[in-house]
Design goal:
Strand order of the largest sheet: 1-2
Structural class: mainly alpha
Largest sheet: 2 strands, antiparallel
Shape: elongated
Distance between the termini: 54 Å
CATH class of the largest domain: Mainly Alpha
CATH superfamily of the largest domain: lambda repressor-like DNA-binding domains
Number of domains: 2
Helix content: 55-70%
C-alpha cells in the first residue's frame, strides 16, 4: 500500500492477481447485465423476438413497419385506424412507395409498441 499522508493512494498487487481481479469484475458485470435484462423482460420493458422475425428484419429491402404490424397481428385497417391515417397511405409506407412524416412514424411506433428506431 502506498500512502499519501495518512490515506491510502495506491494498491500494488501482483500482475497475476490483477488479472484475476479483472476477470471477477467482468464476471460481476455480466451477472448484473443478465439481472437487468431479466428484470426488464419481467417488467415488460423488453421482449424476446423469434429468430425468424429478427432475420426478416435484417433482410435487405424488408419494411419494418409491415413486419412489426404483422408480428403484432394487426391488419392494415386496424393499424391505420389506430394511427389516424388511411389504409392506402399505410400500404404505401409499407411498400416504401411513400415516405411518412416524423409524426406519422411516431404514431405508428406508439401503436405497435416499439421505438421509432425500430421502424425507421
Amino acid at each position: 500500500m502506498i500512502k499519501q499522508g495518512d490515506k491510502p493512494e495506491w494498491a500494488v498487487v501482483l500482475y497475476r492477481e490483477y488479472l484475476e481481479l479483472l476477470e471477477k469484475v467482468e464476471m460481476l458485470q455480466d451477472v448484473q447485465d443478465y439481472d437487468s435484462a431479466k428484470m426488464a423482460l419481467e417488467e415488460g420493458k423488453e421482449e424476446l423476438l423469434p429468430e425468424s422475425f429478427v432475420n426478416e428484419l435484417l433482410e435487405e429491402g424488408a419494411n419494418p413497419v409491415k413486419l412489426w404490424r404483422e408480428y403484432r397481428g394487426l391488419t392494415q385497417k386496424k393499424l391505420a385506424d389506430a394511427v389516424g391515417i388511411n389504409v392506402p397511405y399505410l400500404s404505401q409506407l409499407e411498400t416504401s412507395k411513400r415516405k411518412g412524416s416524423l409524426e406519422v412514424y411516431s404514431a405508428i411506433a406508439a401503436a405497435l409498441g416499439v421505438t421509432l428506431d425500430d421502424i425507421v
